[in-house]
Amino acid sequence: MIINTDSALTLAGFLLQIKAIKLNPTSPFVWASGLNSPIYCDNRITLSFHMIRTHIRQEFVNIILEKYGKPDIIAGVATGGIPQGVLVAQELGVPFAYVRSEKKAHGLTNQIEGIVGKGNSVIVVEDLVSTGGSSLNAVEALRETGANVKGMVAIFSYGLESAKENFRKADCELTTLTNFEALLEKGMEDNYLTEKELISLKEWQSDPLKWSKHFEK
Length: 217
Prior knowledge:
This protein is an alpha/beta fold. It is built from 8 helices and 10 strands. The protein has one domain (5-213): Rossmann fold (3-Layer(aba) Sandwich).
């Protein structure tokens, strides 16, 4: 879910403007999973733009305080959620930790870097949610420490049904600053998309696997 539609549209415009999100339904990108996709998102680019970086930080802070109150800890999901989480934790004046995708194979074999205590209230910060697998892996690792994960905030979500189901099963509330619907609306408004491309993007969101197969050689 998103909190503010106007803010979501504004941020979608920023992401398109700086090419943190690229749309190309006719010549798709290939994700790490091997799937063809008409959209590619790299929110790390936002860190290079002070105004946008500050906007994202403040929107995160506002949502967290409005929905959950001040948490004991902010936890970022490696790697994209780490810098965003640090900015939020600094603004809130609370400790920060981050969660790796898996335990290290050497040293202390930590999966969580930083101090998270039993009973601590934690808000997880992520940059992007696709299926939610890696994001929820971080939530589970935090819960195993006895922490109270109150929710997750992210910059952007593709709005895939698989992600919605995964977050529902994990009983974890996800709030994003902007989303796929806002992106499409802003993309049409600012002429980043044609009607034909809009239809293709909606078809992809409805069934990414089926859409991807159209481009398999």
